[in-house]
Specification:
- The protein is α/β, with parallel strands linked by helices.
- Helix content is about 25%, strand content about 25%.
- It is built from nine helices and 17 strands.
- The strands form four sheets. Strands 3, 4, 5, 8, 9, 16 and 17 form a seven-stranded mixed β-sheet that branches. Strands 12-11-10-13-14-15 form a six-stranded parallel β-sheet, with helices on both faces. The protein has a two-stranded antiparallel ribbon with strand order 1-2.
- A hairpin with an 8-residue loop joins strand 1 (about 1-5) and strand 2.
- Helix 4 packs across helix 5 and helix 4 (about 150-160) packs across helix 8 (about 280-295).
- The longest helix is centred in the C-terminal third of the chain and has 14 residues, at about 280-295.
- The model has no long low-confidence stretch (mean pLDDT about 95).
- The chain binds zinc ion (2 copies).
- One zinc ion binds near residues 38 and 40.
Length: about 325
């Protein structure tokens, strides 16, 4: 197999020949046919997450075909198309696993962060954490659903069912969740980097009722807001934009420091929460309903060995929607 390997944080990934790997007990080997590029991959490469592993193969929006099956795997077959998400394994016995909150597991394994991921021709996954994808939809169009879509879905659920939804940062996740929210009959208010008219226009094409700069006041009060951007300054701005009793959800794994703000922005039962990871149930719920929602993912593809270019383009905001690596 070949892979783009991060040998040390803050260095470019290197195209590397590796011995083929065999799936262990409860595992499958997946031939990668598409792997999305997520903002979290940038945090991994930049060494911004705690306890970084190196060498590591990033990538956790994997679409692939099963080409080897380990012992004691049930319900999956050779050649089947599966998705491998960020949540790679949980312990099953800690208090969080036992209270159906495995997204908060004390001993998790994360694909592309603490276990090798999908910027590769093949990957090993825990069979119980892979999602059968069926044959509807192209490999490339499905890849961004596996993190941008899934984390976005969880964030949307936690935002509550208010009608006016603000999305701060209109990248891969927001471009999917805007479509989900429209399908649910909500009004979407899209906030981008100030002056980013192109992304604002993109948001409108996806049905946003309004799109503007992140420092603007929207024309209507928001019931909830989801912050996908990694910018802490957005927290007080979003609190300012929501109504009494509204909720601001921070969806990212990493964010710059939140500046201090007057208590009045939180007063009147406004809530500020974060979303961490996903549960398998999130994946099952979202992937079962996604085909009905008519989601069109906007993707830019790169060969896997050009992953560094994809990461640089993501960092610079050079494409709308999501980047996807293909063999
Ligand atoms: Zn656990
Ligand atoms: Zn991700």
């Amino acid at each position: 197999m070949q892979a783009m390997v991060l040998n040390r944080p803050r260095t470019p990934l290197e195209w590397t020949d590796l011995p083929d790997r065999q799936p262990g007990q409860g595992q499958i080997r997946v031939k990668v046919v598409a792997c999305g590029v997520c903002r979290t991959d940038l945090h991994v490469v930049d060494g911004e997450l705690p306890d970084p592993r190196a060498p590591i193969i990033p990538g956790h929006e994997i679409v692939g075909r099963i080409d080897a099956i380990g012992a004691d795997v049930e319900g999956l077959s050779m050649g089947e198309r599966v998705g491998v998400p960020w949540l790679g394994h949980t312990c099953g016995v800690c208090p969080y696993c036992r209270m159906q909150r495995e997204n908060l597991c004390d001993h998790p394994v994360f694909t592309g962060y603490t276990r090798d991921g999908g910027f590769a021709t093949a990957t090993i996954a825990d069979a119980r954490f892979a999602f059968p994808l069926g044959e509807v939809g192209s490999d490339v169009s499905l890849a961004p659903l596996l993190c941008a879509g899934l984390i976005g879905w969880r964030s949307l659920a936690i935002a509550g069912d208010g009608k006016n939804l603000g999305l701060y940062g209109f990248g891969a996740a927001a471009h999917i969740i805007a479509q989900v929210a429209r399908w649910q009959g909500r009004s979407v208010f899209a906030f981008t980097r100030p002056g980013d008219a192109a992304t604002q226009a993109f948001a409108r094409t996806l049905g946003a009722a309004w799109a503007g700069d992140s420092d603007e006041t929207p024309p209507e009060q928001l019931d909830a807001a989801i912050i996908f951007a990694t910018v802490g300054e957005l927290v007080p701005r979003a609190l300012k934009a929501i109504r009494k009793g509204g909720r601001v959800v921070c969806a990212g794994i990493h964010m710059s420091d939140i500046p201090s703000f007057p208590y009045a922005l939180l007063w009147e039962e406004r809530q500020l929460v974060s979303v961490a990871n996903l549960t398998r149930q999130d994946g099952i719920d979202f992937l079962r309903q996604a085909p009905k929602m008519g989601i069109i993912t906007h993707t830019t593809t790169y060969p896997i060995r050009n992953a560094n270019v994809a990461l640089a383009d993501l960092r610079a905001g050079r494409f709308d929607g999501a980047a996807v690596l293909v063999p």
